Model the fold of this input.
Amino acid sequence: MIARLLSAVLILVAGGSLSLVMAQENKSSFIDWLITDDVLQETMQPRHHMRLMAESFPQKTIDTTIDVISYDLVLDWYSALLTPKAQRPERKANGRMTAVVRSRVNDLAQIDFDAVSLIIDSITSGGTSVVFTKNVRSISMTLPSPLQRGQDVELVIHYAITRDDRAIFFYSKSDAATENSPYASAYTISEPEDSRRWYPCNDQPDDKALFSVQVRVPKGFTVVSNGVRTDSVLVGDTASIQTWKHDVRCQPISLRVSLRNTSCIRRSTPARTIRLFLSRTIISTSIKMDRFTMPLVRCRTFHSCSKRLKRGSVSIRSKRTVTSR
Done:
């Protein structure tokens, strides 16, 4: 393989009639000639024209006028987890998002957030109603008074989620049975630009913020999100409210929420704590090592997981490998 690659380079350099531009344009033919292994060749073949890929990739004009300091989400997923998918109304779940936004310019009169497939009920700031307009991609909020550079404003947005088949997924007990899973569950997936589909935000990777998440769920569910769980309170005999906070600024797509009827295995040492929330089809893991915290959701079967646990070790790779014995 190395000999063939060197030969190809020598031919390209020595051949005056074959330019690098031609090699790029004839990439498929060049790969056919260079790679003889069918499997390797399949992985290297271009699937689409570069122009088509560039046009279909998510694009957004970066907003440099604001810096979001924090997002505090209050989510009510109780009804969605008890109602079969076919019977859910247009408002799949309700939420309240409180954002603290700092102006990076003088005389900032309007703030735009990304919001797709969301119903915006109301927006307030300091108890005063905020005038807003909504289109299919975003909301534009007119501030009660312009902000100067360095000034903060708190925005409280009441909204509803209208789609549960992208970015956020709810599975009631009957839905789970259809999917051959014994447990009801819910989870979010935000990459590459889907945070805006389950909470309003400045959905761009350079605007990192602090996050807290409070979720109301049926009794018996365990919620997992970024950071550490700070509170879990029973509400009557049927529900609980669980709160997670993350003390490291991160981008909107890094926020995760997942939940399911689970059991918990805990392994601790003075330097690190690992919590493994196990179910038949999903492991949701929250890791905290010193100041490094991240949530993981790994899809595995319970049987393969239990075999690893019987051997007495669970390895999770982050900046370094952590092994619990």
Q: What stands out?
A: The mean pLDDT is 76. The first helix runs from residue 2 to 14. The chain is about 20% helix and 45% strand. The helical segments are 2-14, 20-25, 27-34, 38-44, 50-56, 78-82, 173-178, 302-310.
